[in-house]
Amino acid sequence: LILTTLLSYEYGNIPQFLFDKAKIKGVQSIQIKIKKPTWGKGKVDEWWGAKGEVKTFLDYLAGIASPLTTEERKAGKLNGSVTIETWENEAVIAIAGQEKLLEIKAHFVEERTLFKILNILLIDGFQPEAEFSFIQEGASGQRLFNVLSEGEQQAIIIRGLMELTNNENTLFLFDEPDAYLHPSWQRDFIESISEFAKYHNNSQFLIATHSPQLLSNAHIENCDVRIIEDGEIVKVTPKYYGRDISVILYEMMSVERRNKKVTKSLSALFNAIEDEDLENSKNEYKKLAELLGEDDPEMVRAKVQLDYLQEEKNEANR
């Protein structure tokens, strides 16, 4: 329902947002399935006794709907139409084409009104479910697709809630909003909220997260970070803005830098170097280099120390 409403935006930055996050250039069709509510009575053509804004909305769609002929269906001439198929306990509303969706939105004047009515369908127990056929534009031209990743869905839901439910003095509560977001989107998350807050400065956001990317990009000028350990707020919050992700994980979230087996092997390597056991050090280094690569920071450090030990040994043998 959120995505249906966002697709009805013709101007502003929402169309660009949908393209940037999910490569959605437009929509070929939307199918909205509704079911008879538990309280419903009467026939489906009376929307099972619906009243108020829901009845007005469904009556409007029925008024602009037109049945397609068999020839039109076979030819795929669906663009710019609304069709409604009904059964005893179910109805499917198909909106074909971006222009038709914009026309429906224009009837209700603004996007928020359309979202409000769609949301009432949900609240009133009609169990609306939407399916989409999107238009994607690439190097080879336009193609259709209908599947979004969990990360794309999450990003769209978050942006939609901010755009469609924000009012004066709104408090947004987000619990692990980064859970399905790509790491690069996690980095942009706080920035997008900060940008949104510039124009809605009476709104506040309360976010629970384990993402070091969110912390690293939470500027102290507009973010107040609190760390919770064992159910209690830590009195002193360490520096976090702009810090390395691995440092935040290790120092603030108590996540080990390495798994235990690798940590043990690294300890053995540096202990051997400390003991100036060159042969054993080389053997440990060789095994770890195959596993971690020679460009790993710890391996680079070990190589420098090994070279120093080798040089000392060479000097002693002269």
Could you characterize the architecture of this molecule?
The longest helix has 20 residues, at 297-316. This protein folds into three domains: 2-146, no CATH class; 166-252, no CATH class; 260-316. β8 (228-229) and β9 form a beta hairpin. The chain has 13 helices and nine strands. The mean pLDDT is 82. By secondary structure, the protein is of the alpha+beta class.
Question: What key attributes describe this structure?
Answer:
318 residues; alpha+beta; 3 domains; five-stranded antiparallel beta sheet; two-stranded parallel ribbon; 13 helices; 9 strands; 16% strand
Summing up helix and strand content along with how strands pair, one would put the structural category as alpha+beta
Q: Kindly state the number of beta strands.
A: 9
> What is the tally of helical segments?
13
Order of helices and strands: HHEHHEEHHEEHEHEHEEHHHH
Strand composition percent:
15-25%
User: What is the residue-averaged pLDDT?
Assistant: 82
Give the terminus-to-terminus CA distance. Answer: 80 Å
Strand order of the largest sheet: 2-3-1-4-5
Please, how many domains? 3
Unreliable runs, pLDDT <50, ≥5 residues?
none
> Tell me about the biggest sheet?
5 strands, antiparallel
Specify the helix fraction band. Answer: 40-55%
What does the overall shape look like? elongated
- How big is the Rg? 29 Å
